[in-house]
Design brief:
single chain, 411 residues, alpha/beta, 8-stranded mixed sheet, two-stranded antiparallel sheet
């Protein structure tokens, strides 16, 4: 079965829970998604380009789950074929991520929220080149979020997905506006500010790659820097596979950011620095970075081999990990208001298909058009059968084709 290409970028972000370094990946959508077919911002502002992104969370770390899981990679591949930019990350205690896994999953849920915040600011920082331009001159606003430039586009399409334990954590996520609120107004020394900064920096690297028109090869992106690339702005370097020339100083900027994004974040100042939490001091206006509004994306949910009780209770330490969002609504309410696909094997012995159908029954009655279950006869929990994997990927593709296209055409 087809697996995705090597990740385009590998990097670290800190967790908002305790600054633990999280190993992350971005798989870029095909270059044509950003290239010549992009709308002209000068002449076609009514329907500007809207990014499409997806996040896939991996299975339980204590039984070997990671972003290298084969089923996770199959999901990434299916999403990329629909021209989605896909992000994955390792929860704490997995692979190159720091820290240790917890028994309550409270910290892991914060890890997930950290990556959601990063991913949305990353997508909002990517501007496609102007259609038909022969040069990258004057068409590349470096680090627009850092400079306070708002995104000129409608909301992105965002798929929040997970497999097994990752699906359980996706179920427990707060609603997207609540997660984005966490990152909107933050102190300069906060973890949230660091995440926003890294998102803008990786977007800068991505835009340079897009505008150079060269194939984006697998690489490790290395981390954060406030420094600017040096070099003579008028000098140009041509790559053998490049259609456009790229200013030398932009290449220097990219290399600097690539080196720095691989460095885990180490806090130098205050520990708890989100203004809505008790800090023991009153910050001044100068302590905050520029507030930037990221439009709420059109959100969709993809749950593959979702864990339900009793395993769900075991994975969360038999506690109500976070069953209510900030508005006090049941977390499952989001599946009534957003397109949701549940894919489950009929031979799954960890959570039976009967339990899934019972859990989903009232959702299907109230929202049959938006909530869909695909029952796969040839699969258990671990998706080892080749026919079952083909069914899974086909189900994802058809679901995206229906719901993303329908929402796009309605705007």
């Amino acid at each position: 079965m087809d697996l995705p290409p090597a990740p385009t970028y590998e990097f670290y972000i800190p967790s908002i829970h305790d600054d633990t370094a999280l190993a992350c990946r971005i798989y870029s959508a095909p270059e044509s998604h950003f290239g010549g077919g992009s709308p002209d911002f000068e002449n076609n502002r009514e329907k500007p380009w809207a990014p499409k992104g997806a996040i896939v969370a991996h299975p339980y770390s204590s039984v070997g789950g990671s972003y290298d899981d084969t089923t996770v990679l199959h999901m990434v591949s299916a999403l990329m074929k629909k021209r989605f930019t896909v992000g994955t990350f390792n929860f704490r205690g997995v692979g190159k991520s720091g820290g240790k896994a917890t028994w309550t999953s409270k910290a892991e849920l914060q890890d997930y929220i950290s990556f959601v915040g990063f991913f949305m600011y990353y997508l909002s920082n990517i501007y496609p080149p102007v259609q038909g331009s022969e040069s990258c001159d004057n068409h590349f606003p470096l680090q627009p979020i850092l400079s306070g430039v708002p995104a000129i586009r409608p909301p992105a399409h965002l798929i929040l997905a997970g497999y097994s334990y990752g699906a359980l954590m996706t179920r427990y996520l707060p609603n997207v506006p609540a997660m984005l609120h966490r990152f909107s107004r933050v102190l300069e020394t906060s973890t949230e500010a660091e995440i926003r900064s890294r998102a803008a920096e990786l977007a800068t690297v991505t835009q340079i790659d897009i505008l150079s028109r060269r194939p984006i090869a697998a690489r490790e992106v290395r981390s954060r820097s406030k420094g600017k690339g040096k070099g003579k702005g008028e000098e140009r370097a041509r790559d053998s596979g490049s259609l456009d020339s790229v200013p030398t100083n932009w290449l220097g900027e990219k290399e600097t950011l690539m080196r720095l994004l691989q460095t885990p974040f180490k806090r130098k100042e205050i520990k708890n620095s989100w203004p809505d939490q008790g800090m023991g001091f009153s910050p001044c206006e100068e302590d905050f970075i520029a507030q930037v509004h990221v439009p709420t994306p059109k959100t969709h949910y993809l749950l593959v081999s979702l864990l339900l009780e009793p395993l769900a209770a075991f994975c969360t330490g038999f506690r109500k990990c976070a069953r209510l969002d900030v508005d006090g609504d049941s977390l499952d309410e989001k599946f009534l208001h957003n397109a949701t696909l549940v894919v489950h094997g009929k031979k799954d012995r960890l959570t039976s298909i009967a339990k899934i159908e019972k859990w989903a029954n009232w959702r299907m009655v109230d929202s049959e058009e938006r909530f869909q279950i695909v029952r796969v006869a040839d699969s258990g929990h671990f998706w080892r059968d080749e026919t079952a994997v083909k069914t899974l990927k086909a189900a994802i593709g058809m679901w995206i084709q229906k719901h993303v296209r329908e929402e796009s055409e309605s705007n």
